[in-house]
């Protein structure tokens, strides 16, 4: 399973990259706003800065919700850097835009996926990635992981090449569950990634090893 980080915070992206396990980055307009990035030039410069840190794909979302607007923005984003993947919402014009980008060889991430039907249409249109939001489904008592499982089955049934990018991952157990149901990628906060390392027996075991070493080496 690939690991993407879901943030526009350069420091956190650098920290995840330095771990050596980062495969890409996802952003969205809310995450960009959280970092105080505003205005076209600053937004484009920020995407470029992210691409300069990581080696993998960087999802950058269009703001337009009409076909013409989406393709104009998406073409500009794709021209910005070869690592950019154009993120498009799972709406009618979004599906048309994904088809357009797919024909042009521009990679896309269909976002705000909350149902298997949306994921099926996005794959038919040629999306590179679909982003089912598992945390937001869990928030309203739907099982986000079950949706990943369902999309996996459908994509495998027809050998769709669209990759399942589990998004809205909130914590470490989500990461493990995504791996169990064979999501291709998970994108989550740095805390969910670093949380995978945490175990009290690792901490106490290491403390014991160091204490024993010290006893005979002093
Ligand atoms: O990748 C989508 C993600 O940013 C949404 O996460 O935590 O706002 O539901 P969240």
Descriptive notes:
With 218 residues, the protein is an alpha/beta fold. It is built from eleven helices and eight strands. It has helices at residues 10-19, 29-34, 40-53, 67-80, 92-104, 116-125, 134-139, 144-158, 172-180, 190-194, 200-217; strands spanning 2-6, 24-26, 57-61, 84-89, 108-113, 129-132, 163-166, 185-188. Helix 4 (67-80) packs across helix 5 (92-104). The longest helix has 18 residues, at 200-217. The chain binds SN-glycerol-3-phosphate. Residues 6, 26, 28, 31, 131, 133, 135-136, 167-168, 170, 187 line the site of SN-glycerol-3-phosphate.
Task: Give a brief description.
The chain is an alpha/beta fold and 218 residues long. The chain contains eleven helices and eight strands. The chain has helices at residues 10-19, 29-34, 40-53, 67-80, 92-104, 116-125, 134-139, 144-158, 172-180, 190-194, 200-217; strands at residues 2-6, 24-26, 57-61, 84-89, 108-113, 129-132, 163-166, 185-188.
Map the helices and strands:
Elements: E1 2-6, H1 10-19, E2 24-26, H2 29-34, H3 40-53, E3 57-61, H4 67-80, E4 84-89, H5 92-104, E5 108-113, H6 116-125, E6 129-132, H7 134-139, H8 144-158, E7 163-166, H9 172-180, E8 185-188, H10 190-194, H11 200-217
Parallel strand pairs: 1-2, 1-8, 2-3, 3-4, 4-5, 5-6, 6-7, 7-8
The structure holds SN-glycerol-3-phosphate.
């Amino acid at each position: 399973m690939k690991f993407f980080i879901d943030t526009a915070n350069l420091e956190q992206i650098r920290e995840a990259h330095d771990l050596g396990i980062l495969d890409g980055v996802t952003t969205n307009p809310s995450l960009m706003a959280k970092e105080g990035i505003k205005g076209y030039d600053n937004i484009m410069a920020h995407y470029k800065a992210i691409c300069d840190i990581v080696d993998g794909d960087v999802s950058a979302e269009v703001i337009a919700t009409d076909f013409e607007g989406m393709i104009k923005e998406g073409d500009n984003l794709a021209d910005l850097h070869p690592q950019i993947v154009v993120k498009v919402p799972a709406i009618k014009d979004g599906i048309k835009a994904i088809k357009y980008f797919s024909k042009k060889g521009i990679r896309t991430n269909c976002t705000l996926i909350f149902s298997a039907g949306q994921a099926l249409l996005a794959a038919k249109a040629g999306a590179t990635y679909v982003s089912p939001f598992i945390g937001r489904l869990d928030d309203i008592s739907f099982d986000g992981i079950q949706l990943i499982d369902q999309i996996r089955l459908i994509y495998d049934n027809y050998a769709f090449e669209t990759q399942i990018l589990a998004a809205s991952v909130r914590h470490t157990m989500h990461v493990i569950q995504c791996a169990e149901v064979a999501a291709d990628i998970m994108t989550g906060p740095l805390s969910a990634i670093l949380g995978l390392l945490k175990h009290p027996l690792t901490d106490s075991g290491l403390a014991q090893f160091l204490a024993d070493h010290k006893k005979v080496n002093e």
